[in-house]
Every structure is written in C-alpha cells, then in structure tokens.
Amino acid sequence: MVALVTVVLLIFIGKVVIDHPFSxxxxxxEVKYPAGDIRGxxxxxxxxxxxxxxxxxxxxNGVPVRFVFIKxxxxxxxxxxxxxxxxxxxxxxxxxxxxxxxxxxxxSAKAQARWFCREVWLxxxxxxxxxxxxxxxxxxxxxxxxxxxxxxxxxxxHYGVTPILYTSYSFKxxxxxxxxxxxxxxxIAHYYxxxxxxTGKWHxxxxxxxxxxxxxxxxxxxxxxxxxxxxxxxxxxxxQKKDD
Length: 244
Description:
Number of strands: 10
Number of domains: 1
Shape: globular
CATH architecture: Alpha-Beta Barrel
Helix content: 25-40%
Number of helices: 8
CATH topology: TIM Barrel
Distance between the termini: 63 Å
Strand content: 15-25%
Order of helices and strands: HEHEEEHEHEHEHEEEHH
C-alpha cells in the first residue's frame, strides 16, 4: 500500500512540474548571473508602480538594463492594468521593449490573438510580440500545439514579424519540441542553474524570478540576451522588416 501511494504521489508531482513549471520552483540563495553583457527584465502589474527614470540608470550585475518585456494581455479579454503606462514610460526612457501575451486554454487561440492585436501597438523600435505559454490546461498535446500555432500565425500576419515563444525548458521539451516551432525565437525560462542544458538555439534566458533593481520595489524576473547589443537591435521589428 505504501509503495502504491508513493508511485501515485510521484506521478502527481511529475505532472505538476511539467504543467506548472513556474509555480513550484525553489526560492533560495542569491541570484546567479550567467555570462552575458546584455541584460533585461520582464514586468507586469505584480511589480506595481515602477520608477522608470531610476530604472534607466539601474544596473544588473554591473551592466545597464538594456531591454524589458511587459505583460500586455491574457486570455481573450484581460489587459494588464499597468501595461499602457509601463509601455509608454519604457518608450519615453528609450529602453528597448516588447509586449507579451499570457496564453489561456479557456478561450480560443484566435480570439486571444485578435485581443492582443487590438490592444497592443508595436513600433519598429520594439521587439517582436511574445507568446507566454506555461500550462496545458488539460489539452491533449496535438490540440495544444495547434492552438499555439494558430496564435503565432495570426499575430505574425498582423505585425509582419515572427513572434517570440516563451516557455520553460521542460515544457518545450515535452510539448513544443516538433520542427514547426524551431523557427520561432526562443525565450527560455530556466531558473537556478549555472548553465543551460538546452542544446537548441535560444535568444533570451530568464534565469531568475528574484532579481532586484533600482526603480522597482518588488522582486523582478531577470534575463540575459544571447548576443551583443547590435544583435539585440537587429531583433527589433523595423530592422527585421528591412532585412526581409
């Protein structure tokens, strides 16, 4: 009986880790900064009021904050309450920024894509739109992949640039590891490791959710870009369209 309970518990824990890889990560120790000089953050209403002027002179591990991803929408009808002010202030301070959508399985991918496109205006100086996918919501893997691709295709058609795909290391390996997802720039979430084990191509690495930075009173996600500053600029919408 004990052995059976143990097996059931391990199966349950394994499913939680895969379906909710961002919610049970350990929180311990100091933030470790991997190699790289181009660093940035991502924010939402959880960070509340941000002093963007202070943020422009802030540093992460000795280098400036070069980019910021800002939560815009979730599902088919939710707009982050701080999105418009955050995006406007980031622009005003000259920080390279992008907007992301938190994917929900409670509404159709097309409805969510239309909602994002309606609420988010992106300029040539901005990074491509981002799809944040973290949970299966009980969808079978083929249906999940289909829904994700529907969102990505609709948004790419609207903005004229390939969206960025954000998810965890384990989630991508389990659900989004088929060839059709290889064309999307990958923003990988993988915390509390010194080096990525992921062997594929990646562009951004969210390596901790416990960063501290001047101008923000709460913990913040911190990221490193896989390239130099010119490479980051080349990812902006205007430069990508120019190269096409």
